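Shift notes (night). Ran Epsilon-sarcoglycan isoform X7 while the centrifuge was going.
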Amino acid sequence: MALPDVFVGLIVVVTILSKSHADRNVYPSAGVLFVHVLEREYFKGEFPPYPKAGDTSNDPITFNTNLRGFPDRPGWLRYIQRTSHSDGVLYGSPTADHVGKPTIIEITAYNKRTFETARHNLVINIMSTEEFPLPYQAEFYIKNMNVEEMLASEVLGDFLGAVKNVWQPERLNAINITSALDRGGRVPLPINDLKEGVYVMVGADVQFSSCLREVETPQNQLRCSQEMEPVISCDKKFRAQFNIDWCKISLVDITKVVPVHSNRPDPGTGVLPDIGEYNPPSESLKSRDYFADFLITLAVPSAVATVLFIILGYSMCCRREGVIQLVHHSSIQKSTKELRGMSKNREISWPLSTLPVFHPVSGEVVPPIHPDNYETTSMPLMQTQTNLQNQIQIPQQQTSGKWYS
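Came back to this:
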């Protein structure tokens, strides 16, 4: 049974690691999504089984992928593995610049139970095709998917089938898949089964359909600017499985894109050439002595500081104006000390609140408000009383019943 074009392209790029110990060769096409699955089941055979016979091995296995001779992968190739009990996935979109250059990826599997490793090589031979890249490219943002879920062949096939129904092209291929986290998105909260979101770019050989053009209408552009969901007639064909943010859809016609060529300046002597290897300086170079530089660095500031100190000392101690200023400063300090000593020894009158008070009704003498150890230093300097005897005289009561002062 013949398969649709969309699924034919998908099956070509999805590969599974062979159980052969020889290097695995794959042949992706430039401008088409490349997906390669690293199966844990295969690498389990590289590690010793469980001690007890009959136990099912479920070792935690992680993968490390890098370009041979380098610590990381090529820029177009990404890798994801959500947990140590799930398969790893290599994915990306090679360009025409990588055609004809075999890319050898070293795959190292780590068994966290036995602390053993197994290594295999994946040889990526990028092929060129005349029909790629497709001229009309649309990028969709799917909010309810993670990147590893979208990379599954059946999920990606369902999405391409829905796009083909609303676009009706003759050829349709997935070009690239990017996690929203790689575009500056935030990690979702671990509630309500929230997903990080994924961008899916597809290409076709015909103009964009009227449904895809609806997002460019002024009404939908206004709704997007107000953070409202636009009205798209074909959204129901995706809504059952894919929640698409139509405000983030991108439609690009590469036939109308004007290439920008920038004149690269001539590199200087310190810039490495595009071709060639770095040649470090030879060991025959003479070492430089920095002791003289060190002395100059310390001597110049020290000499300037010494000259300034001598000038200041001469101005303050040897010249008449300086001596007068020193004597004047000394006299101010002496007067200040003398005033402080006089203020400690002054005698002031007790305020009225510290004297006994005569009660006019009961005839009793009320004790003063403040105790005898009243702090005199907290009293105001200006007092209306002259002395304790002249402040007030308490009236005395005679037996005859007459009052006198």
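Confidence is low (pLDDT under 50) at residues 1-21, 381-392, 397-405. The chain has nine helices and 16 strands.
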